[in-house]
From TrEMBL:
This is 3beta-hydroxysteroid 3-dehydrogenase. Its EC number is 1.1.1.270. InterPro entries: Ergosterol_Biosynth_ERG27, NAD(P)-bd_dom_sf, SDR_fam. It comes from the Bacteria. One of its GO terms (molecular function) is 3-beta-hydroxysteroid 3-dehydrogenase (NADP+) activity.
Length: 316
């Protein structure tokens, strides 16, 4: 058996490459940003809270004083915010990758909506990232880049078909979360099919972090400070969990490894933990009819992607 050359703890030199990460102020987004910056990449750290984003940037610089970082306020649940942020990014060089990471992991007990009128979990985990990917498509095409969507192993345990996409009826926190991840995975896979068909030089990949918890993650001032109870409970689950640092491994590999191909699904080797490997997405997320339905919904709720312009974009 061939030895896998990818070492998540010793990444290849990423100098000269440019990545944007949503939700960089904590969790998987922070550790993905940290790992990319440590390998020499220029990282645009984004988040909706400027103070938390500043603290996260400072934490990266404490580890890597020469890190090439930029910060940008971006709330993916707010269409106006993400469009303004994307306009700022488009005015610079091309992007080699976008990690669509930000999201709600613990949904509200009762259904809530955003200022745009969308159910908050779907708006944050799915719709905002669909819109952001479209807004950044020209920059990604200029960088011959890759978009990575954040999936979840929960979709293989609960096959929720998102017919009531924004859960106007029968809302539960867990269903809102799992359904959003089914939608994210389906759209991420569908995006690659559509980009390839339109001859846009951008790949779309989905990656999931396994079962990654804050209580198994080292404390970092301003970024990760779990309570003693969280430490205790999460460590009881040690055989089936891993740290957020390790949870970021499949995300970073999906974003930066040249052997990764569009339309693939990546996750930990032991499903819940381990080094990053190719995996198989849930059957419900591979259904082309479900993907087309979700794509159509997102397209009408936001705006179509600029395929034609992106296909003609010159590399920068």
């Amino acid at each position: 058996m061939a030895v896998d050359p990818w070492n998540p703890q010793d990444l290849p030199d990423l100098s000269g490459r440019r990545y944007l990460v949503t939700g960089s102020n904590a969790g998987l987004g922070f550790f993905s940003s940290l790992q990319l910056a440590g390998a020499g990449a220029h990282v645009i750290m984004t988040g909706r809270n400027p103070a938390k984003l500043s603290a996260a940037r400072a934490a990266v610089l404490r580890r890597y004083p020469d890190a090439d970082l930029a910060t940008l306020a971006l709330d993916v649940s707010n269409l106006g915010s993400l469009r303004a942020a994307a306009a700022t990014v488009r005015g610079r060089a091309g992007l080699n990758g976008v990690l669509l990471n930000a999201g709600i992991v613990h949904p509200p007990k009762q259904r809530e909506t955003t200022r745009d009128g969308h159910e908050v979990v779907f708006a944050t985990n799915v719709l905002g990232h669909y819109a952001l990917a479209g807004e950044l498509l020209l920059s990604l095409a200029a960088g011959r880049g890759r978009m990575v969507w954040l999936g979840s192993m929960s979709t293989s345990m609960w096959a929720y078909d998102p017919i009531d996409i924004e859960l106007e009826n029968g809302y539960t926190p867990w269903r809102a979360y799992v359904q959003s991840k089914v939608a994210t995975t389906a759209i991420g896979l569908e995006a690659d099919r559509r980009l390839a068909e339109a001859k846009v030089p951008v790949q779309s990949v989905v990656a999931h972090p396994g079962y990654s918890t804050s209580g198994r993650t080292r404390g970092i001032v301003g970024v990760n400070a779990p309570s003693r109870m969280s430490r205790f409970v999460d460590n009881l689950q040690a055989p089936i969990t891993q740290s957020k640092e390790h949870g970021a491994w499949p995300l970073v590999r999906a974003l930066a490894d040249p052997v990764v191909e569009g339309g693939e699904f990546w996750g930990p080797s032991r499903i819940v933990s381990g080094e990053p490997r190719r995996a198989t997405p849930a059957k419900v997320a591979r259904d082309p009819e479900i993907a087309a339905r979700l794509w159509n919904y997102c397209e009408h709720a936001t705006s179509p992607w600029p395929y034609l312009k992106a296909s003609k974009t010159r590399a920068r």
